[in-house]
């Protein structure tokens, strides 16, 4: 009996800790002081260092400057770990449209902005094993965004 | 480790993170600079460093702005901050324009709402919108030249109306904000009484809030079963996409680029496509829209069945807190439904 109560206490505290440290109702967005080409290189390097493979860099800016936009520096970077993607797509098909994960990166004058969605938005009580991946991705993304924000 | 030690160390971890957090600059750079700029000069968000803004904004206004944001107008609500953290951010914002900000009472300003409404239509609606919905787009976004004017904020907005007392609205109208298109309406020839009337009208927005379009849908994806084998289904998706005037960008396996060529899972196929005029419209209302790009529909085979699926754009859209973007996502949702329906017939 007592042990159960203690377990509950611990999970309550762990939950509170998570609740204060993570926030699933926002985008993850940071500003890097690097110029776009520098930030682009740094991002690819950082993603690789975290053990992910970049599957593609998609230009989104073709025709943008022709349409009156000031920038033609806008990319979407797709990345993942193959073993994770294989497991997720075979066991948790509800996550299929969301993988591989992506970070949008674009220039704002001399700075570069990076945005990604929060994986915890996709948590599902019914699939704790899938949630573990989402928590891990969130941690990795926070690290990537932090490194990018600090990069000079 | 005993339970008490475990709890204690958790507790220490928590307090340590809070203590460290009361560093206003760090908090600002992590949470605000992406939109408002490292120097407070604006970007996706409006400038915060301008002296006229700083003097007209009370600490209480800034605190409320951070806590509650502006629903539907990009500016997020930062509910997770402690009071100390909010204060630290306010102190940090203040260092750009040292000096005493105005203090306001919460006293209501009396005025003739009807007359205020007339004046608003003549003098304000062209910028702040006929119903106070604000200008199109946000701040001084990446895609526009910096010397273009700052986009006028929404006034018919719970976040704004709850944070700004009547006296602050009045002061803004009397003095204007130098360095922005918001001019002093005293200098524009209005009398103080006229300004009171306008303030009373702006306050009356509280009774006529704009319908909030941001509702969280329950379904995080669109999914339908196809009656055809995978290969034919992919062809049907391509036809549907082109039939709807999208340009086909690429057809690939999900793990293509993650594994050696030839070893991809051929039972999971992504079709990417794009519509440039839609893209341009979307970028104009929110530069972060790249997260929805390019458009994508995925077909896969599982247990002998073929499914066609996409994200539900409305599900992700709510975290952008942008009404205009949400409307575009509603269009997008319909497009995805049509394409997937057609492809699975």
Gross CATH architecture of chain A: 2-Layer Sandwich
The assigned structural class of chain B equals: alpha+beta
CATH class of the largest domain in chain B: Mainly Alpha
Shape of chain A: globular
Count the beta strands of chain B. Answer: 5
Give a short account of the largest sheet of chain A: 5 strands, antiparallel
Strand content of chain B: 5-15%
The spatial strand order of the largest sheet of chain B comes to 1-5-4-3-2
Number of helices of chain A: 4
- The chain-level mean pLDDT of chain A equals 84
- Kindly report the CATH topology of chain A: TATA-Binding Protein
Mean pLDDT over the residues of chain B? 89
Strand content of chain A: 15-25%
Key terms for this structure?
heterodimer; A: 152 residues; alpha+beta; TATA-Binding Protein; 5-stranded antiparallel sheet; 4 helices; 44% helix; B: 345 residues; Cytochrome Bc1 Complex, Chain D, domain 2; 2 domains; 5 strands; 45% helix; elongated
Structure description:
The complex is a heterodimer of chains A (152) and B (345). With 152 residues, chain A is of the alpha+beta class. Chain A has a single domain (2-150), classed as TT1751-like domain (TATA-Binding Protein), CATH 3.30.310. Chain A has four helices and five strands; from the N terminus they run αβαββαββα. In chain A, β4 (101-108) and β5 form a beta hairpin. In chain A, 37% of the residues are buried. Residues 1-5 and 10-23 of chain A have low confidence and may be disordered. By secondary structure, chain B is an alpha+beta fold. Chain B folds into two domains: 19-207, Cytochrome Bc1 Complex, Chain D, domain 2 (Orthogonal Bundle), CATH 1.10.760; 221-344, TATA-Binding Protein. Helix content of chain B is 45%, strand content 10%. In chain B, strands 1-5-4-3-2 form a five-stranded antiparallel sheet. In chain B, β4 (295-302) and β5 (305-311) form a beta hairpin. The radius of gyration of chain B is 25 Å and the shape is elongated. Residues 17-21 of chain B have low confidence and may be disordered. Chains A and B meet through α1, β1, β2, β3 and α3 of A and α1, α3, α13, β4 and β5 of B.
